[in-house]
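haha ok so turns out i had the wrong file open the whole time. this is the CORRECT one, sorry everyone. sequence first:
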Amino acid sequence: MYEQTVDGFGTVRVVPVDPAGDLDLIHDWVAEERARFWGMRDVGRERVLEIYEFLDSLTTHHAYLIHRDDKPVALFQTYEPEHDPVGECYDVQPGDFGIHLMVGPPGGAPEPGFTGTLLSVFLTFVLSVPGRRRIVAEPDARNDKAIARLVRQGFVRGPQVDLPEKRAQLVFLSREVFEGRG
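then structure:
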């Protein structure tokens, strides 16, 4: 678990997913129209459980729920690109580390800076491990909102690539750029 208090925002905790214990929440989130780019809208509860149990069994891929003041607000996944299909689509560099991000449904009125704050805390968590030098993400190339959010965070666009389940826009964030932001 990782925890960071953000002034004016609250306490953000990064907690590993418990596949069985978090199943209802994750299934509800991935089934929503707003999560269409996550690619699991039509997947039943049993399949969601299988997917997250499989992720939980790996040493190269991990899933986390992000909590704000004890309320789950986002789902993040990490992976080692050399052990993922994306690693076949670009020249993986030493220290590359991949992420997926899905913010949960809004619990009220839109809050300016919400996603940026969550992403910043998660990236701080990811880069707290020595040797991780560059973050890679591969949102669906049609997901303009996610790509724009990552670019605002400092990510740089790479090529578009074809993955088994989507056409993806590769984006990269170096440790130096992230640490120089603030």
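The two ends are 24 Å apart (CA to CA).
again sry for the mixup
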